[in-house]
Amino acid sequence: MSSAKHRWYWGLQLTGWMACAVSQLYAFTTLGTYLPSVNTYVYVGSLVLAALAFTHAYRFLILRYHLLTWPLGRQVLVATLAMISMSLALQSIAWLRSGLMHQDWHAYTWQTASFGVLTMGRYLTIWLLAYHLFAAGEQVTRTEVRHLRAESALHQARYDALRAQVNPHFLFNALNSVRALTLTQPHAARRAVTQLAELLRYTLQLEQRPRITLREEMAAVQDYLALEQTRFGTRLLLQVEVPAAALAWLVPPVTVLTLVENAVKHGIAAQPAGGTLTIWAAAEATGLVVEVGNPGQLLPVSAAVPGLGLGLHNTRKRLVTLYGLRASLVLLERTPGNIVATLQLPATLTPAL
After folding, report:
1. Were 295 and a residue from 3, 157, 181, 275 both cysteine, which residue would form a disulfide, CB within 3.0 to 4.6 Å?
2. Which residues contact 288 (CB under 8 A, 6 or more apart)?
3. 341 pairs with which residues across the strands?
4. Are 206 and 58 found together in one domain?
5. Are the C-beta atoms of 258 and 300 separated by less than 8 Å?
6. How far is the C-alpha of 201 from the C-alpha of 186, rounded, in Å?
7. Taking the complete model, does pTM exceed 0.70, yes or no?
C-alpha cells in the first residue's frame, strides 16, 4: 500500500470508530439509563478499540488471502460470518470486562448481550459495506487502467510496425532514383547519394518521435525533391505555399514526405512531359490542412496495380492509430488530370512553439 493510501485508510478508520464512540455515548445519555461516567467511557472505549483492531485484522486477512478476487457470493458469505463473529467477540470482551470489574459474572444479562450484538453488528455492517464497496471500486479502476495500458501498448506496437513498413518503402524508391543516375550522370549521382544520406539520417533519428514539426518534415521534403529534381530535371516543377504559422504544427514523421513521394512516383514520373507538383498548407481553426497535388488520373479499383498505394494505406493506418477518426487523408481527382491528396490533422494538439 502506498503511503498516501495508508494515511487515508487510517484516517478514515480512526474517524469512523471515533464517530461510533460519540454515537454510543450520545445514545446512553439520551436513554437516561447510563449517565456519563468513567465506567461508561471505559466500556465504550474498550469496545471501539477492539472493533478497530478486529476490522483491521479482517482487512489483513482478506488482503492476505485475496478475498476480493473471490466470487461475489463467497465474499458476501465471508463478510456475514465475519460480522457475526466480530459482534460476538466484542460482546465477549464486554462480558469479561463487566465480570472482572464488578465481580458479578451474571450482571451482564443475555438481553444486554443481544442488544450489544445488534448495536455493534450495525456498525460493523456499515464498515464492511463501505470497505468492500471501496475496494471493489478500486479493483475495477485498476482493471480499467491495466486494460487501457494494454490497449495503448497494442496501438503503439501497431504504429511501430506501420512505421517500420513506411521507411523501407520510401527508401526503396529513393534508391531507385540514385540507381537511375549512376548510369548517365555520375556526378549527379554522387550529389544524390549525399542527399539520400541526409534523408537516411532524418528517418533514423525519428524512431522515438511520434510527432515532429511541419518545419522538420518540410526540410526532409526539400532534400527529397532536390534528389528527384536531379533525376527528372525540368520535368519536375515545384509550387510550394507553406506559411510560417503552419510550420509550427506537429505532424507524424514522414507523412507529408510519403504524399510527396507518391505524387512524384505515380504523378510526375508517369507523365512523359512531367508536370508541376504543388504543396500547400494552412493552419485553420479546425486544425492543420496539407495538400499535395500532381498531374495524373485516378485508376478505378479494378485496374489498380497490386502494391500500388502502400505508402498511403500505411499512412492512413498510422493516422487512425494516433488520432482515431479525428484525422483524414483523402485522394481525389479535383479537376480532370489533377490529383490532390488532402491531409487533415485535428486542432486538439498544441502547436509547437
Report:
1. 275
2. 214, 246, 249, 251, 281, 282, 343, 344, 345, 347
3. 292, 331
4. no
5. no
6. 23
7. no
